[in-house]
């Protein structure tokens, strides 16, 4: 079993060890400060060097069955028995640490909003981390959890304690959720100056020494996933700060284009949306009026004892409006230069959908609809109306 140095406080990022096994591009050491992937936290990366060699450590994983920790290296490889020096990438470790502490603290915040919001799974493999919660939290619960965390970060100095306790002593600690670990259990506790814990969890991961070092914790969105769970997507620490800074920078630039302060940007956007809706309504009314004019003005011809009216319409939206206005036994066929086409009629002896499918079988395309109105797309818009006339004359 590899002796773990990553639990040491203060954290160890540089160490020396001896190679105990080599398998392909993987190396096992007798001791390591590289944290192996686990508990939703990614494994550490960094460098490994020895006499005559210096390579990148690209991943760190633990064999759960044996407890051995494997380091994936770039070539060349050290030999078994060779002393090596390891250096964990400090920036990557810190980001992983902030994410993991942020996850614990956010999970506890949701638990305090309502204990039914229990964590089912977590992932911290990218800046956008996730916790999957039972209990279906809504937007009000999300805001309450974020508010609680802001208060905790700003008003209390919660410090990290990581005792290793016998399984039989776990009942003395207010664990946020039961643990499956047996034997000696490492706890991660964030507590105030009086020793009152904010969060207690069984965890083998790396964490910040003060809870405020994981701030801010920002919820980006929530989404329903399978199993009736709600996935909460969040960011923590410096990654969250960079994200918020970018959002504010973009918001400030957008606000300047509208000549309003950032705090009035939402008001300005809502005003534009209202204008857009009014313009869309006016455009719809104009299209409907144009469609009515076209329908009333176009000549009708008799084909096989049926009144037939044909239209070339540039705007497919006007085409649809025109078809929806048909309330007479006339058979109205329309087509646009893009190939959008349709047939409508109130004639009980005519099936517009069947007629359209017949015509599209000749001119190429797909479409269908009801006996009174059918629409589709033809590959030969220039031939569509004549094909409709031919189909009518042959019926």
Which characteristics define this entry?
single chain; 395 residues; alpha+beta; six-stranded mixed β-sheet; 7 helices; 22 strands; 33% helix; 31% strand
Mind sketching the topology for me?
Layout: E1 3-4, E2 14-23, E3 26-29, E4 31-32, E5 46-50, E6 53-62, E7 69-73, E8 83-88, H1 90-113, E9 119-123, E10 129-133, H2 139-155, E11 159-161, E12 164-166, E13 184-191, E14 197-202, E15 217-225, E16 229-236, H3 237-257, H4 265-297, E17 301-303, E18 306-312, H5 316-324, E19 331-335, E20 340-344, H6 352-363, E21 365-369, E22 373-378, H7 381-394
Parallel strand pairs: 1-4, 18-19
Antiparallel strand pairs: 2-3, 2-8, 3-7, 5-6, 5-8, 6-7, 9-10, 10-16, 11-13, 12-13, 13-14, 15-16, 17-18, 19-20, 20-22, 21-22
Helix pairs in contact: 1-2, 4-5, 6-7
Give an overview in words.
There is one protein chain. The protein has 395 residues and is of the alpha+beta class. Helices cover 33% and strands 31% of the residues. It contains 7 helices and 22 strands. Strands 2-3-7-6-5-8 form a 6-stranded antiparallel beta barrel. The N and C termini lie far apart (86 Å). The model has no long low-confidence stretch (mean pLDDT 95).
* Proportion of helical residues: 25-40%
How would you sum up the global shape? elongated
Distance between the termini: 86 Å
H and E order: EEEEEEEEHEEHEEEEEEHHEEHEEHEEH
**Mind telling me the C-alpha Rg?**
34 Å
Question: Care to count the β-strands?
Answer: 22
The order of strands across the largest sheet is 2-3-7-6-5-8
- What profile does the largest beta sheet have? 6 strands, antiparallel, barrel
Mean pLDDT: 95
Number of helices: 7
Strand content: 25-35%
Low-confidence stretches: none
Content-based structural category: alpha+beta
